[in-house]
Specification:
The protein is mainly α. It is 66% helix and 0% strand. The longest helix has 34 residues. It is globular and about 70 Å long. The two termini are 49 Å apart.
């Protein structure tokens, strides 16, 4: 009868070594990826004339006044631009969640003529470069009298124009059991009530993922506000930060980096608050 030999004490340590090396490697890569952010934070507390001469991450001279000066350096207090961006982001998230979820529910749970064709056309819009639509959209918004307003930035979000969010929600809704719809139909629920009472509460991870992606993309959007907004009182945060750069070489670097860090704080906070839903939503939508 063969005698089993007990595992040696070196085997657990051998198993832990590759795991430890992976953690060290990932930590090193993470530090490298965070270097631009760390450099920006460091530059935000340096005098403007030493931002590019003081190469270390630890400033030789600290100047925390960059935050106070940057807050009031432009034509309007920086809080105006933060509020403008917050209003646009909030309404954009609401618009995407409502419109894209309704479109996704129709594609994922309802049966109607031409469903596959319309779904393929929707996916095709994801392959269309956005710059191709710039001129037609500008002409249309100009004829509607919407220039120098927030309508061009908000209305498209309420019309389910982003195919990526629709596709993400479609994949999530398809993973839900069809028996839920059948049970709701037996209880007398119509399509909209089934969506509102049954499907929507179960799609929280997909909604959180859409909200996070929308927040980041809209908050950092520079081209569209630059194209449609001309009144400085309506400027968003990216346009406000751009004003710190002077074409004649007199840029306020310290103040600009300080306000750049202030503008990143809402994005970081929103991402941290919803990261668990983001991971769950991406993982679930990738199952099918």
């Amino acid at each position: 009868m063969p005698v089993s030999t007990p595992p040696s004490a070196e085997e657990p340590s051998r198993r832990r070594r590759p795991r430890f090396l992976r953690h060290v490697l990932l930590s090193g890569v993470g530090i490298v990826m965070m270097y631009p952010l760390l450099w920006m934070i460091s530059s935000s507390v340096k005098p403007s004339d030493s931002v590019f001469t003081d190469e270390g991450l630890w400033p030789a001279v600290f100047d925390f006044g960059n935050y106070a000066r940057g807050w009031t350096a432009l034509s309007e207090p920086f809080e105006i631009y933060l509020v403008n961006s917050l209003v646009i982001v909030t309404l954009s998230i609401i618009g995407n969640l409502l419109s894209c979820s309704l479109a996704a529910y129709a594609f994922a749970r309802l049966r109607f003529t031409g469903r596959k064709l319309f779904f393929a056309m929707m996916l095709g819009t994801m392959m269309l470069p956005g710059h191709v639509l710039v001129v037609p959209q500008y002409v249309m918004f100009d004829r509607l009298g919407w220039l120098n307003t927030y309508y061009p930035l908000l209305v498209p979000h309420f019309l389910a124009t982003n195919g990526f969010y629709i596709f993400l929600m479609v994949q999530f809704m398809r993973s839900l059991p069809q028996e839920l719809d059948d049970a709701a139909r037996i209880d007398g629920c119509g399509p909209f009530r089934t969506f509102w009472k049954i499907v929507m509460p179960l799609c929280l991870p997909a909604f959180a993922t859409t909200a996070i992606f929308t927040f980041i993309s809209v908050w950092n959007e520079f081209f569209s506000p630059l194209l449609y907004l001309t009144d400085p009182q309506l400027y968003t945060v990216p346009l406000a930060v751009r004003q710190f750069m002077d074409s004649e070489g007199q840029s306020q670097w310290g103040e600009m980096f300080a306000m750049s860090f202030v503008s990143l704080a809402p994005v970081i906070g929103f991402f941290i608050a919803g990261q668990k839903y983001l991971v769950r939503g991406i993982a679930t939508t990738g199952l099918r």
